[in-house]
Amino acid sequence: MRLEDRVAIITGAGRGIGRAIAEGYAREGARVAVADLDAATAEDAAAAIRAAGGEAIAVTMDVTNEEAVDDGVQRVIDTWGRLDIAVANAGVQHIEALDKLSLAEWRKVTAVHLDGAFLLTRAALRRMYQGGGGTLLYMGSVHSMEASPLKAPYVAAKHGLLGLCRAVAKEGAEHGVRSHIICPGFVRTPLVEKQIPEQARELGLSEEEVVRNVMLKNTVDGEFTTVEDISRLAVDLAAFPSAALTGQSVIVSHGWHMG
Ligand code: NAD
């Protein structure tokens, strides 16, 4: 097992990509904190990991709430005495043209991605600097590298995470902290299922056309990336043994974007 004795917290892990990462880490021997805004899905994901023989707790927290994130990370440290891996994965999407977008929606999307990643980073680093190091992973996107219409706050926030990841790699190095950003193409989770009809409406296309001609148009094979693909990569990045690999963005998108 490649992550034995490690302790990890993953935000937005009640479902989708985050849940698959939590399950993948647990299979590799890590003790995992499943953090999510939604208490029921976090409990469910943690229970499933325990039922499969792993070690997991559920931590209910809103990543945009400073006190909640500090308390949540502290609970993980109180439970297992350490923190080795933190994955800033929680995210939301909002489909709307820029000229119609309200400041409130802009702030909602950017806060979950950017404020949320910052708060997790700060809480994790405070512990990792005492404990001899660790790994921070950020859930970026192909939208950390390029833009699509109707997703301005998401695109801006995902580009911002690239900068945060690189800043952590520079500052964290002397404390043994490494960081990476995973940049998936489209993965068929609830976040994507919700935007298929929304994009169809905004673009005047059928849902099938949105999938084929918008989402997967530039892939090499017309395939969705899967949660298992992302989970496997998150294990590899967390298990890599040295700072030869730090500050990197890894694009997992069936060739949609080649960085
Ligand atoms: P999802 O909607 O299935 O899951 C997101 C999870 O985040 C949910 O469990 C939700 O409750 C949680 N969450 C939302 N706001 C939160 C908050 N304020 N505090 C704590 N938890 C919160 O989405 P997903 O597709 O699994 O996305 C996970 C990450 O991957 C996101 O950052 C997303 O931007 C990114 N991503 C997804 C895709 C894709 O195609 N699905 C592609 C690239 C990047």
UniProtKB/TrEMBL annotation:
UniProt GO molecular function: 3-hydroxybutyrate dehydrogenase activity
The protein's Enzyme Commission number: 1.1.1.30
Keyword Oxidoreductase (UniProt): yes
Keywords: Oxidoreductase
Keyword rRNA processing: no
Superkingdom field: Bacteria
Enzyme class label: oxidoreductase
Protein family according to the UniProt entry: Belongs to the short-chain dehydrogenases/reductases (SDR) family.
NCBIfam families, alphabetized: PRK12429.1, PRK13394.1
Name of the molecule in the record: 3-hydroxybutyrate dehydrogenase
